[in-house]
Amino acid sequence: MSPADTLRFATRAATAWPLRTALMMLAMSIGVAAVVVLTALGDGARRYVVNEFSALGASLLIVLPGRTETGGVNAGSFVSSTPRELTNADAAALLRLPLVQRVAPLAVGNSEIAVGGRLREVTVVGTSADFLELRGLKIGHGGFLPREDFNRASAVAVIGDALRSELFPGQSAVGRMIRVGDTRLRVIGVLTPSGRGLGMTTDELVLVPVATAQAMFDTSGLFRIFVEARGREALPATQRQIEERLRARRDDELDFTVITQDAVLGTFDRILGALTLGVAGIAAISLAVAGILVMNVMLVAVTQRTAEIGLLKALGARAGTIRAAFLAEAALLSVAGALAGFALGHAGAWGVRLAFPQLPAWP
Q1: Which domain holds residue 13?
Q2: Per-position DSSP letters for 72-129, written without gaps between them
Q3: Could you report the per-residue pLDDT of 240-297, keeping only the tens digit for each?
Q4: Annotated Gene Ontology MF terms (predicted)?
């Protein structure tokens, strides 16, 4: 048989058994769609995390309490067995370094906010005026936190737009009083809507001066210190200056960690890249099962069509020709199912992007 005859034979055989053909194509399409969708999800999660950290700027360094046991960024970067607290004085000392452009100390906690009988739990972030530029936030109404000494506990707050809508519906929040925990604060600004970033819903934050937050939560320590260097090329030198300054303030002990944005991005990129491959491997199991199903169905088809095979041999067809005809039928069904699965996978990824716009789940 010529290649055209082989293709016609495979097409007629596939259309002669519509239920069998449909089931084989369904199995193959499910396997391919699973690989496409899960790969898109894994890669989308990786790109989301990388984009979130990239949004902080290319010159960011983060100072953490506690020391890592190995180089790079790992679980030890965030938890240390006996960490010594970072303080406002440490942040002020870093701000005086020649290669440092901005410093934003962070003190974070949860508390209740009350306005006119309305009560809800919120995340309170104590920081400084530089936090606005470091996080790329924008003010919709009013102003941001005053530029003042880190130890000054001013009774002012900046709230997210979602909080403003909930607590002061249809009204201006600027100049109004709120109670956070046991502390009364005057609202001086409202952030523009910006959604979720780095696991934090900025539209529902309450931002206060760092000393005010420390007084609320009865602590003198800091959660983190964000530092912006004077340019990306100055990052290595700035990191050395930070380490030297803090070690000088801590009896030459390296009981803190300074990580760069590149280190964070590289680590998350490797972890989520490996996760994407693992998820794709799991999805590929369904594709392998579909392939085995196609093989088994074709073996059954051979036994069911012995009369047809005998007729072909009687007409002079060789064993290799008959084998090629059955392989062409299996390939035709597999390719058709794979194309359907590819389209189905793209539709599934589109549905994920529609449901979660912040997740760039592109196949």
Answers
A1: 3-51+267-355
A2: S-SGGGT--SSPPPB-HHHHHHHHTSTTEEEEEEEEEEEEEEEETTEEEEEEEEEE-T
A3: 999 999 999 988 888 899 988 777 777 777 888 888 888 888 888 888 888 888 888 8
A4: transmembrane transporter activity
